[in-house]
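Objective 1b: paired records.
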Amino acid sequence: MAKPKKTPRPKAETPKGFRDYFGAEVTHRADMLAKIAAVYHRYGFDALESSGVETVEALGKFLPDVDRPNEGVFAWQEDADADKPGDWLALRYDLTAPLARVYAQHQNDLPKPYRRYAMGPVWRNEKPGPGRFRQFYQCDADTVGAPSVAADAEICAMLADCLEEVGIERGDYIVRVNNRKVLNGVMEVAGLSGDDKEAERGIVLRAIDKLDRLGVDGVRLLITVGRKDESGDFTRGAGLSEAHADVVMKFVEAESLVSQSLAITDQDIEAGPTSEALEANEASVASSPEIWQFMRPSTKAMKIWNSKIIEYLEKLVFVSTIGTEGVQELKEISKLMEAQGYCADRILISPSVVRGLGYYTGPVFEAELTFEIKDEKGRTRNFGSVAGGGRYDDLVKRFTGQEVPATGVSIGVDRLLAALDAKGRLDKTPDGPVVVTVMDKSRMADYQKMVAELRNEGIRAEVYLGNPKNFGNQLKYADKRGSPVAIIAGSDEFDKGVVQIKDLILGAQIAENATHEEWKERPSQYEVPRDDLVTKVRDILDLHR
């Protein structure tokens, strides 16, 4: 008789595209979420915790037209083998689609407008890569039911406040604002309006989105005759005439042109550049072979940047009704921002923001960290975007059949944590517990009393609960836990009414750097009266903060 096959042991590994988070990583994220939530709450937004699972129908905009709709999301069908299979369900892809469903479902019970914030993990069934995971945290705030751009301006101000609250200093970030309607106006002026031009519009939009990679020359090729890359592959162009391509490129290069026009004397800054100064720079900027990059204005130019970029866009789309409407909305946002003290050094009108313009219907915004870091190959680059959002007036309409205005923002918490770590602004002070070692198992009640006293004073502490036979292993445990202090008390200490308190942080520093003489002069272990246990531990912890 054949032996039954043994059930193979499962592999102890995380699924591809997922990861585990430990200790300080979880604590740092929780602290950041609490700080962001406090800002959202201060602005009058209410918390919402929606289901982690939605029907595929509710997430329909993310799914392809196939028999099994699970591309992009993790989806399954209830009772798939039954005579009457159930609904298709999916892990939520983001926090915005659930909001649209919640609002449509509970609109009669919710205040109008409805202001909510939500935080939690989302899941995407996409190919993972370096720093790109299938599960990550989002931190959103949205206003549903407010058509005024005052709601968009408020989101921008709140985003700036959130960045500063978590430790991003002013000058290290910029919130850039654009408007989908302005780009629609550019498309109209460039002869790309109408259903029959949908394919060409798509090519132009994708080309604009590749600006930072291909530069102005590459974009111009894509919107006209097409472009051959280094491998020889040819990408078909949109076929625009030179005149229509000029319109698109003036939009693409708006920031470069205005930045150069503001590179003038301090005296001229107060009066502002003339239209002739703008025109004089167009030829030199348009022919630049360098890859285009976002140009942050000088401190002087900041004073008038928003008004001048709006003036430039106004002239570009003046014959388009929708484009003019978008410019007026940007003008109103700028006015509202300045009234609250948020000028162009923090919130900047920026036509180069093209994030998801097919999804948004009005203002769009993106928070960019402007300081430099080293990438994995040692190259210097700007850190880049950590948050984004905009107005999406069509999303709730999928459920209600009626257009409901909405605007919101999503903050990438993991990106922000990585940025703070890169700038050395994450608190790396060991956060492990004070460890009370066990020298005499019969005195366990006394050890437990010690940790109770420490905990009652708000000090994180624990008794060593492993095998106490080897004292060295207890100190190794404390070291692995990142413990700042170890408490040592055996029968001699109990008889004398004292405890030994070992400063593990100082001890590590001495062991690494000090000479033998310095080691003798800087003891890291203290004998104190038992009644002074909490006071001495507190002094050591305060010393290392």
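Objective 1b, second protein:
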Amino acid sequence: MKHLQYIIIFLISISSFCQTKISGIVTDKKNTPLAGVNIYLEGTYDGASTNEKGEFYFETTEKNTQTLIASMMSYETHYEMGDVSYLKGLKIILREAINELTGVTLTAGTFEAGGTSKASVLKPLDIVTTAGAAGDFVAALQTLPGTSTVNESGRLFVRGGTAGETQIFVDGLRVFQPFLATGNNIPTRGRLSPFLFKGISFSTGGYSAEYGQALSSVLQLNTTDLPDEEKTDLGIMSVGGNLGHTKIWGNKSLSVNTSYLNLAPYESLIPSNQGVSWNKPYESISGEAVYRSNYDKGIFKLYTGFSKSDLDIDQEDINYEDFINFKNKNSNLYFNASYKHFYDKEWTLYTGASVSVDKNDIGIITNTIENKETASHTKIKLKKSFTNRFSLNFGAEHFISDFSETFKDASNFSFDTGYTDNLTATFAETDIFFSNKFALKLGARAEYSSLLNNVTLSPRVTVAHKNNEHSQFSFAYGDFYQNPSRDYLKFDAGLKPQKTSHYILNYQSIKNKKTFRIEAYYKDYKSLVKYNTELPVFDAEYTNFGKGYATGLDIFWRDNKSIKNLDYWASYSYLDTKRNDRNFRESATPNFAAKHNLSLVTKYFIEDLRSQVGVSYNYASGRPYDNPNTPEFFAEKTKSYNNLSFNWAYLITQQKILFLSINNIASINNINGYQYANTPDATGNFNRRTIRPTADSFFFVGFFWTISKNKTTNQLDNL
């Protein structure tokens, strides 16, 4: 028995002699000790946890080179590798882990509408349920700060920029003609149906280096990856009808939507009375389809849309005794295909292409204009996430634009114009997260235009700092280039790209379903196009001597918690801008820029009545116009714009909805501007006429029926 005791004591002493002591202390970057950190040797049971002083100590029988691991929730895992004999007296510093849900985000200049984005201030549902928007996503976006109300256009005017300075993309690919064709002083609508998209990102400035050829703004639309269920949507409206269907085969799906619009019945009941006479009210037929195929590590999407429209209208003109006839037949076809693949080791590949063909057959009095634009966009990009702190996004893209136009007058004289441009661009951008409170985005974009024979380089930078759990500050700077519009290039291809520089300072707070956002900005315009005639014509002299600036303040507030069933947001924009471009004789505020814009949007669900009621109010201060009877240039302003709109959606059953909408319910007599005579009368005075909307108010009634297996889905999010 004594011999057995001696053997046990001997083995214990040998074991103690063979053990190696491992020790150290763990702190954060501020040298604060961290308690509860798990410390262990990889692949063994040997380890310990740090005490309140951050200290740890344990023994091991392992030999040679080992890996010591220190891990704790909310911190990045730390590794020490070496011979166990050196793993003592260690000083380990843990870095805070980047939390994708609560960490800082880069938001300067961008409004997002998507259910999963922590930076979202709107949901996709909001885009299409705003009173007065009539289901048009562009009209809904005009309630956000940074936009200007230009009632006679219907397009996006952002921070002192023209409508042409905003570009629209679907799944990262350019939409070359995103708006329906229309006549002079008659607002247009977007071609794209909102129900096909899962989210929207609206950048009012300082956007990513991935996007170019837009001086002011980028609007990104992302189609749905996979629909929730099969369904059929039917709509009967006072201005037409629509029919849509979604079919799902496992990981594949197809959504089809068709729409027919005809304003003739509406015009017969409520005729326009503001200086217009319809020979053929606006009529159009359009359709869209999205095919999706999901794979284990990839997704393929094919989007296509077409539209054909026709209108014939007589409009008052101060320079003619009789009304001026204007007619237009437009056809548009658009294809968009993209594929995204997720590789191992955090690599992502994206590739895609879009093609557009747009034709117009225009008649003005006895003159005809036929034009055609064929354009394409191809893109490839790669993204690599090296760590959760550092990622790189880079790629290349190519644009082809082929435009031709033929003008003919009554004597059969014809004049042909047009151009072809190949534009190639490369871009690279990196996101660097130093901590959950500080992040940096650095990028650059290079472009070459074969038509202009010019190379541009655009640096972009965004910095964000999170000052507390719910709020943060952001700053963005970037240079942005855009080729002159086709109105100029078809006459003169010797111009240079136009340029603007953005400086943006942003503060945003999101807490308890309440969002507050304030943003100041400055834009410096250079190389804008100028010409020396009343309108851009073939014999004008074109230069890039134009310049200008735009500065302002945007404020946004949203609250959908304080009052039960009530969701509302308010936005205000202050804009100070001047330009010396086009045919301006001096620097002046352009006629599309109002100094003050205000929007209030409310949505209230009445449970007892099974109804959603919406009210929107839009205000814009007077816009400048030039009065040739005074020596000052663009010194006078129209009266303020006011619009109070209302909509009501009543659920007859869960899947049947009766919808009523009234735009400008108070029939306020808004003024878009004035047209002055080309020559003075006998007294030397230039007469004028008031340019007003074709109708003060617009009424809409519709019945919408959804057929699906779950019998709960409806079209409320499409109205």
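The first strand starts at residue 20 and ends at 27. The helical segments are 2-18, 124-128, 137-141, 264-269, 486-489.
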